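can u pls check wat happens w/ shikimate-3-phosphate
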Amino acid sequence: MKLILTGFMGSGKSSVSKELGKILQLPILEMDEIILQKTKSTDMNEVFAKGGELLLRETEIEIAREYADVKDIVISTGGGVVMNKIILDYLMKGSGKVFFLNASFETIVSRLMNNHDRPLFKSITEAQSLFCLRHPLYLKYADHVIDTDKKTVRKIAEEIVLSLCKEKDG
Ligand code: S3P
């Protein structure tokens, strides 16, 4: 089983993928972590300082290609993967299912207000236009949309498991 979690920065992909990994006994790929390893950086600001957004996107494509054939895994993507369809094409290869964690912009702002490791979330206005630009893409590439506002990580993970069961039975 291959699950791909998408969503804007701060939508809960990392926490939910850890919970799903525990429930389903699957390994987790945290794409942002591998980007740091591959670019020998300690945080995203350093990745941007070294090679700008281009370095980030190229590294994302490389990782997606490397994991295209991995079958049993939960993949926590970076919020920008929908900007490069090739990344999702690689990740969805085989039977990958995409779950979009849909959080409102207000929820995201409240989560990321004091976070300083999101180079693309430095200004609320810019982040909001990015959010508007990407939202239709998250919807377009999703097999399932999970509304996450006011839900616990556990509840979100359980909803995902439930949709998987329904899909299997139906
Ligand atoms: C980005 C999202 C980040 C990280 C990078 C760029 C984006 O990941 O990949 O800062 O373009 O939305 P998270 O979605 O895990 O915050």
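The mean pLDDT is 96.
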